[in-house]
Amino acid sequence: MMLVCRTLGLIGTQLQATILLSWIAEMDLPLQLGWESVMIFQHVDLNNQRLIDSTRHDCESIEMYCGYLLAELTKFFALNHAQANFGVSFAATDDLVSAVSTPYGEARGRLTIQIVEGVISGRYVFEKSIVSDDGKDIWRPIWAIRIGRYGNVLLGDEGVIEIDVTNVGPHSNAISAPAKSLLYSVASTPIFKR
Questions:
Q1: Mean pLDDT of 85-98
Q2: For 116, how many CA atoms within 13 A lie in the half-sphere containing its CB?
């Protein structure tokens, strides 16, 4: 600790160094030590460690429900009336990546699984292909669906509307809501970055 304090131009006690390092960690600031950047990492307490006790089962469950969702979206956009009204092509791969072609541009989706607010959950993020200021194609996140380990699928990051993705028909509002929300998000995002 004295080395860190001296490197920072401070000379003090170990207690002062501990207080300084704690403050830097709380502020989430990197320490600049010559050519290196040192981050301060804290111990993960037992309650947080318990959140990951059933990681494999939780992740498999989230992936299963995500697969149901993508299968239903694929069926919905393939319906004759959906093709006539929206003109969207939606395809998903076995690794839960989707490709979306719309009259408003191209989009893609992928699943990430992480701990959010103390719960393991999935976040299926859709991105739209846009053109950056320097003329390069880039992907910009435009919308997300949250998927819980018990099958609760919530539209958007705020998760106000929950849908059921198991045992639904292609004409179900449970599937038309995310389909139309996705298309709206693609349509309302400009192709050129402002």
A1: 97
A2: 13
The per-residue pLDDT for 7 is 45
Nearest to 97 by CA among 119, 127, 120, 118: 127
Residue 22 — φ and ψ, nearest 5°? -65, -40
Buried b (16+ CB within 10 A) or exposed e, 158-180: ebeeebebeebebeeebbbebbe
Question: Do 9 and 24 contact (CB within 8 A), yes or no?
Answer: no
- What are 92-133's pLDDT values in tens digits? 999 999 999 999 999 999 999 999 888 899 999 999 999 998
Same domain, 30 and 57: no
Instruction: Write down how long the chain is.
Output: 194
Same structural domain for residues 172 and 119?
yes
User: Domain of 61?
Assistant: 48-187
Cα four-point dihedral sign 67, 61, 185, 137? negative
pTM summary value? 0.75
Look at the chain and report how many structural domains it folds into.
2
Residues 72 and 100 in one domain: yes
Location of structure tokens 């959010």: 116
**pLDDT-above-70 percentage for the chain:** 78
